[in-house]
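TICKET: design request
STATUS: open
ATTACHED STRUCTURE:
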């Protein structure tokens, strides 16, 4: 039995799964961190691999970009293949003066402009999107033990990569403070595009999920990593995620 978007047979995907967006990053993680690697899917070139990390089975599944794309893979990984622990490993844009290029950010919670939560609850309430506490606490402790600094807090998960939210004269501006200024005031650390779906699907299915991100763009300082760095570096994030998911 396979799913629509993942051509693995049941049993080929581990219960522990890391979720990069980029297929190339999935391949890099599998080849550089796992032993006994087996590629189980190549549909749409959204690659998935299973191997062993310190003797424990771990899968690496690319998901593409954005809430709709990751939602497809989350559903199939959980409902068809029985994934129990899912850690998103991706990039984000730093939005806070205390967050810098290449910092690792762990998403304790996810704020979103997407209608995904509203639709799930029929417009009745705003469900809180939170990381699994056990995974979150383990990740923080792993980072401390590895002497890797991390920032923990709220991120914003957006539907649009390109938007005019931060235009002082646009929809959310008041001519004095921009939308991003307000987000910073409320403690938002970074912006990304998948954590809301991750936390919502995990909550619905009763599985564990966590988002760990590397800052690839510092939106305050206007500093950016290269496309090559986005694909093949950011090893601190991967080490934290792997050590966390096997515990």
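STATUS: resolved
RESOLUTION: sequence designed for all positions
ATTACHED SEQUENCE:
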């Amino acid at each position: 039995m396979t799913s629509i978007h993942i051509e693995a047979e049941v049993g080929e995907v581990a219960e522990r799964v890391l979720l990069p967006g980029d297929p190339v990053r999935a391949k890099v993680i599998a080849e550089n961190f796992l032993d006994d690697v087996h590629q189980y899917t190549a549909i749409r070139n959204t690659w998935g691999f299973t191997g062993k990390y310190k003797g424990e089975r771990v899968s690496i599944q690319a998901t593409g970009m954005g809430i709709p794309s990751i939602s497809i893979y989350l559903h199939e990984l959980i409902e068809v293949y029985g994934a129990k622990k899912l850690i998103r490993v991706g990039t984000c844009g730093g939005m806070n003066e205390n967050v810098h290029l290449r910092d690792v950010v762990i998403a304790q919670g996810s704020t979103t402009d997407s209608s995904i939560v509203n639709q799930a609850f029929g417009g009745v309430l705003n469900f809180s999107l939170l990381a699994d506490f056990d995974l979150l606490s383990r990740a923080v402790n792993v980072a401390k033990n590895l002497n890797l600094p991390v920032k923990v807090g709220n991120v914003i998960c957006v539907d649009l990569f390109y938007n005019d939210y931060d235009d002082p004269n646009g929809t959310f501006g008041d001519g004095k403070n921009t939308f991003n200024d307000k987000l910073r005031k409320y403690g938002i650390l970074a912006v990304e595009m998948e954590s809301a779906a991750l936390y919502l699907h995990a909550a619905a299915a009763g599985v564990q999920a966590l988002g760990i991100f590397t800052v690839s763009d510092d939106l305050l300082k206007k500093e950016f990593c290269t496309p090559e760095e986005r694909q093949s570096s950011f090893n601190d994030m991967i080490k934290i995620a792997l050590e966390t998911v096997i515990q």
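CLOSING REMARK: The mean pLDDT is 92. The first strand starts at residue 16 and ends at 19.
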